[in-house]
Write a structure and sequence with these properties.
The protein is α+β, with helices and mostly antiparallel strands. It is built from four helices and 16 strands.
Length: about 350
Amino acid sequence: MAVTTSSTLSALTSYIQRKGLSVAEPKLIYATYGQKVTIPQKNSKTIKFRRYERFAPTTGAQLANIKLLVEGTTPTAITPSITDVTVNLSQYGSLAQYTDIASWINEVDVDQNLMARNSENMQQTVDLVYRDALMSGTNVFRLTDGAGGVSGAARANVIGSINAPALDKAIRKLKQQDAKFFKEMVGASNKIGTSSVRPSYVALIHPNVEYDLESVPGYKSISDYGDTSGLMPGEVGSYKNIRFVTSTLAAVFPDVGAAVSGTGKGSTTGTSADVYACLIVGQEAYAVVDLASSAEICYVPASAKDHNNPLGLWASLGWKAMCGAGILNDNWILRFECAANA
């Protein structure tokens, strides 16, 4: 008697995993380290920040010029100085459409998966809006070699990867401007081999820069922290007064640096170095601003028929938001541009 096997009575289709596959999600870092402000509705889409500049304690560099009062003499009055910083908000958004049939016949839940992608897209886009606003700073170090050479010259001169002498100069520069640290010191624990982390500025970097950072003498990974309870979002390690956080959303300028021939530096085309814009920031160096209740996920199912979609042939999914960012103190944010080893 012949036995019919599965090779004859084959399955109509493969088993379907009805849960959609995960996608890569970059860390959102630029929204995290700025001063957060929300403008109430029915006010404006522009916000103004005001700083009253500090009074100079002396009239000159020498101790003899300290403002000494002369008995019975009224000192000359000084004129207070103010600085205004304006941030303008713009509206951003995205729209996707898909047919009713796509939802009916697809074994994977189309609505659920596209809703998740839509929400992620909104958050990532807003973070990039903030990032790009911070690229306008004039406080710039461009690494011209791997031994501490920094310059404010053209980006075409960048060829150095991140290194200890250049980081020391960045720390010195921010300290000279009295930039505020983000965190108090993280204390050491009684675990063997752990150490404390100093009060620090925060550096927002790309993972390709982190790769080079691991070789910098004095760099410590978060695994070497004595206490990890105070870790910042996305933090990977520290060097002296700088704590580093990474994201693939960090700015990269492909093929704009110096020639890479014989240097081992990464390049999109193999000709000129890709330049990574690392932002080293102090507390309150910049602000991220949104308009109250302006961020919205918009979903119109195919079943919502109207004159534009009378047969209910497609669904719409999107988002919109009003936001902006601005540098509050250019002295407290340093754009540290470098190459990275391939």
